[in-house]
Amino acid sequence: MAGTSAVVITYNSADVIGTCVAGLREFAPGVRVLVIDNASLDGTMEQARAAGAEVIANRENRGFAGAVNQGFRETDTDIVLVLNPDVRLRTGI
C-alpha cells in the first residue's frame, strides 16, 4: 500500500513525545504516526495519545530493535520512518 508511516519507539519519554508527535502532525500531516511504547511508567502513552498518535503499549520492554520490528509489522505503508521520541521536525519530510 502506498503512503508513509512514522514509527516512534518510546520508553519513559513523556517529556519529549508530545513535541515529536506535534512536529509530525505539523510537517507531515499525511503520515500515520504510530508509537510503540516499551512499558513506560511516566505517562508517555497518555502524552502520545493526547498529541494524536496511535499507541501500542507493550507490557514489557522489548528493546529498541524488537519494538522497531513490531512497528514494521503494524504498518502497511511503502515507507516507514523510524524515530526516537526526542526528534523534533522543523521542516517537511
Q: How do the helices and strands line up, and which of them pair or pack?
A:
Elements lengths: L3 E7 L3 H14 L4 E7 L5 H8 L2 E5 L4 H12 L4 E5 L10
Descriptive notes:
The chain is of the alpha/beta class and 93 residues long. The mean pLDDT is 96. Strands 3-2-1-4 form a four-stranded parallel sheet, with helices on both faces. It has three helices and four strands; from the N terminus they run βαβαβαβ.
Main attributes of the structure:
single chain, 93 residues, 4-stranded parallel beta sheet, 4 strands, globular
The rounded Rg comes to: 12 Å
- Described by its quaternary structure, the protein is single chain
- Topology order in helix (H) and strand (E) letters: EHEHEHE
The SS-based structural class is: alpha/beta
Calculate the terminal CA-CA distance, rounded to whole Å: 19 Å
Concise description?
The chain is an alpha/beta fold. It has 3 helices and 4 strands, in the order E-H-E-H-E-H-E. The protein starts with a strand and ends in a 10-residue tail after the last strand.
